[in-house]
Design brief:
Order of helices and strands: HEEEHEHEH
Number of strands: 5
Radius of gyration: 34 Å
Structural class: alpha/beta
Strand order of the largest sheet: 3-2-1-4-5
Oligomer: single chain
CATH topology of one domain: Nucleotidyltransferase, domain 5
Distance between the termini: 96 Å
Length: 150
């Protein structure tokens, strides 16, 4: 049976990689603070403002409904295409990122919805959404188009 005649070396930690990273971080921060000091020495005083947040809250998205008979409502008020364009353009002047949600009747003519989308484009609206309803799995799209019976 062989006997152990020598002692095992104690395990050691190799800290070389960690020291390299630490030296690089020190160099980075020393150079970074030097550039900040150079910027402070520029003889320029920048204007100061008080940050109080937005002057007004962002408005809710406008809702345009297009009914089967071609009737158009903007926020539950009946309008025609010209009035829709004028009102959306006025609202967009107040808030540039105004969003519009267009909801069309599934049984109505798509041309009515397309006309509303064109009116939104003329008003300068870029944030447009169209509402659709997802069918449950296994339901046929033609069955969903059948008129509701009570």
């Amino acid at each position: 049976m062989p006997l152990k005649t020598h002692l095992d070396d104690e395990p050691t930690l190799n800290l070389t990689a960690m020291l390299d990273v630490m030296f690089l971080l020190i160099i980075f921060f020393v150079l970074g603070t030097r550039f900040v000091d150079d910027e402070r020495k520029i003889g320029l005083r920048v204007p100061e403002v008080v940050d109080r947040g937005a002057l007004t809250a962002a408005p809710a998205r406008k809702e345009v409904n297009v009914y089967r008979d071609g009737t158009i409502t903007l926020d539950r008020q009946a309008v025609d295409l010209e009035q829709l364009t004028v009102r959306l353009a006025a609202a967009r002047r107040q808030y540039g990122d105004l969003g519009v949600l267009v909801r069309g009747d599934a049984r109505g003519a798509f041309q009515n919805v397309a006309s509303v989308l064109a009116a939104c484009k003329r008003a300068g609206i870029h944030e447009l959404g169209i509402t659709v309803r997802a069918l449950p799995p296994g339901e046929d799209a033609t069955a969903a188009r059948q008129p509701l019976r009570r």
